[in-house]
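Lecture notes, continued. The same structure-token format from the folding unit now serves as the input rather than the output. Read the line below as a description of shape only.
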């Protein structure tokens, strides 16, 4: 398999993704984009995945407490072009990537795993090993 078909992101993709994450978080928290829904819901930009050509980016977000998550995802995708415009002014890349926003399900997975680890069945197995 050649490097271009590798599933692992390159160092450049990771660096650009992290730069985009910081810049998007700044744009969204400083109110550069005018939306009552976004203004009322603090957001966390958990990660940004960038395509190999750096022309597309998927930003994973989660509103504080998960409140109104589907509505916020829809609003962010509706405002993707103006957010991209703000992003273009703030970063130094040849192309400003097209943005897509998705809800980050990582927090749901963490809660599910935590509940499993604290379940009676697992606790009983752990005590049996002692």
């Amino acid at each position: 398999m050649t490097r271009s078909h590798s599933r692992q992101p390159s160092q450049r993709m990771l660096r650009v993704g992290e730069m985009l994450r910081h810049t998007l978080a700044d744009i969204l928290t400083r109110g550069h984009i005018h939306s009552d829904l976004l203004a009322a819901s603090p957001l966390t930009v958990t990660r940004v995945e960038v395509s190999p050509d750096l022309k597309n980016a998927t930003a994973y977000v989660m509103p504080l407490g998960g409140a109104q998550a589907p509505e916020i995802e829809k609003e962010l995708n509706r405002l993707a072009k103006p957010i991209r415009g703000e992003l273009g002014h703030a970063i130094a890349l040849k192309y400003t990537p097209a943005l897509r926003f998705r809800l980050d399900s990582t927090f749901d997975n963490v809660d599910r795993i935590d509940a499993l680890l604290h379940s009676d069945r697992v606790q009983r197995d752990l005590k049996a090993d002692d």
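Point for the exam: The beta strands are 43-50, 56-63, 98-103.
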